[in-house]
């Protein structure tokens, strides 16, 4: 031993970032694969995304996970952008390419598709989807589903103009099929898969927090045979998921998407196959 530290550093940036489960997930993965990497969290406010990438270059960080509100800023400030980032205008993962350049990637789309297969055994090809919400997560899900061959993606959102943008993201995934469209609540009845990508029902507060009992749609709109996914993982069981399960509808939370987007980031940074089961256990165990 020459006493020099060869540890590589990766981190999550965002605001807030300190409550993130990412340090627990990635440090468990580094320990499990025996590599000398450390993962931490940096609180970086809106407007400082480009400065954070400059710091990444100077400090030679190997990778960044990026959360709200920096996903668009880092997409713009990176040197190289994946196709999905160009379409969505948002990145959740930055990879140091080793030649001084930084690559912007988006692992939310692939993470959602991998989670869908793992949790529900659903292969997106040819399916009809009702997608509730049109924010950053919804656009990534729309792109991922379209890229994986979904036949119809009806985007249902409180603000219709944003629904069109999410439908456009789906239609940009493939030059042939154009599965994305603005939908209405009635599209839920004909869907194979219903996804809640709104933040309705999210809340780290107590179980009596009124935000926690809010639902993105009435569970009675779904029938057994349909599959539902709530992207929310805080809490693990939203009121919507509980209502759906009471009706005998297969319903999954957002924990697997969180795990699989992290696994994809781990693989981009390290080139090593991600220990998904270890990462899942760390995600369930909670925050760092
Ligand atoms: N599992 C994972 O790995 C993962 C990854 C990313 C995100 N998520 C979750 O996905 C959710 C959305 O995240 P995001 O980044 O897309 O957020 P976002 O960009 O802020 O979008 C929020 C969406 O929720 C809708 N919404 C908010 N309050 C509403 C209300 N009271 N009634 C109806 N619609 C409402 C918004 O509609 P308007 O357009 O009308 O405002 C918008 O469509 C969050 O709960 C987040 O935790 C999970």
Description:
The protein is α/β, with parallel strands linked by helices and 288 residues long. It folds into 2 domains: 8-106 and 256-285, Rossmann fold (3-Layer(aba) Sandwich), CATH 3.40.50; 109-253, NAD(P)-binding Rossmann-like Domain (Rossmann fold, 3-Layer(aba) Sandwich), CATH 3.40.50. Helices cover 39% and strands 18% of the residues. It has helices at residues 22-33, 49-59, 71-77, 83-88, 108-120, 136-147, 160-172, 210-213, 239-246, 255-270, 276-285, and strands at 8-14, 37-43, 63-66, 80-81, 93-96, 102-105, 128-132, 152-156, 180-182, 193-196, 227-230, 250-252. The chain has a 6-stranded mixed sheet, with helices on both faces. Strand 10 (193-196), helix 8 and strand 11 form a beta-alpha-beta unit. Helix 5 (108-120) crosses helix 6, helix 5 packs across helix 10 (255-270) and helix 6 (136-147) runs parallel beside helix 7. The longest helix has 16 residues, at 255-270. The two termini are 30 Å apart. The mean pLDDT is 94. The structure holds NADP nicotinamide-adenine-dinucleotide phosphate (NAP). NADP nicotinamide-adenine-dinucleotide phosphate (NAP) binds at residues 108, 133-138, 157-159, 162, 197-200, 202, 231-233, 254, 257-258, 261. Residues 108, 133-138, 157-159, 162, 197-200, 202, 231-233, 254, 257-258, 261 line the site of NADP nicotinamide-adenine-dinucleotide phosphate (NAP).
């Amino acid at each position: 031993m020459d006493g020099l530290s060869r540890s590589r550093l990766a981190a999550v940036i965002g605001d807030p970032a300190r409550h993130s489960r990412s340090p627990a997930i990635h440090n468990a993965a580094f320990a499990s694969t025996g590599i000398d990497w450390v993962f931490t969290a940096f609180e970086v406010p809106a407007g400082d995304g480009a400065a954070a990438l400059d710091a990444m270059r100077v400090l030679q960080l190997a990778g960044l996970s990026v959360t709200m509100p920096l996903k668009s800023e880092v997409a713009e400030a990176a040197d190289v952008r994946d196709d999905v980032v160009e379409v969505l205008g948002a990145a959740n993962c930055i990879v140091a390419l080793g030649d001084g350049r930084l690559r912007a990637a988006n692992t939310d789309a692939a993470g959602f598709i991998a989670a869908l297969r793992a949790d529900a055994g659903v292969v997106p090809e040819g399916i009809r989807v009702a997608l509730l919400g049109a924010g950053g997560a919804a656009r990534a899900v729309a792109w991922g589903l379209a890229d994986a061959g979904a036949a119809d993606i009806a985007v249902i959102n409180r603000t219709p103009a944003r629904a069109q943008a999410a439908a456009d993201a789906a239609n940009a995934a493939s030059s042939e099929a154009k599965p994305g469209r603005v939908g209405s609540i009635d599209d839920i009845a004909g869907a194979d898969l219903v996804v809640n990508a709104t933040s309705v029902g999210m809340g780290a507060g107590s179980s009596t927090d009124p935000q926690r009992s809010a639902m993105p749609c009435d569970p009675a709109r779904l029938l057994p045979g349909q599959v539902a996914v709530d992207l929310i993982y805080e809490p693990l069981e939203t009121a919507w998921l509980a209502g759906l399960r009471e009706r005998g509808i297969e319903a999954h939370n957002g924990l697997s998407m969180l795990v699989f987007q992290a696994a994809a980031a781990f693989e981009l940074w390290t080139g090593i196959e991600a220990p998904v089961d270890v990462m899942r256990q760390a995600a369930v165990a909670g925050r760092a």
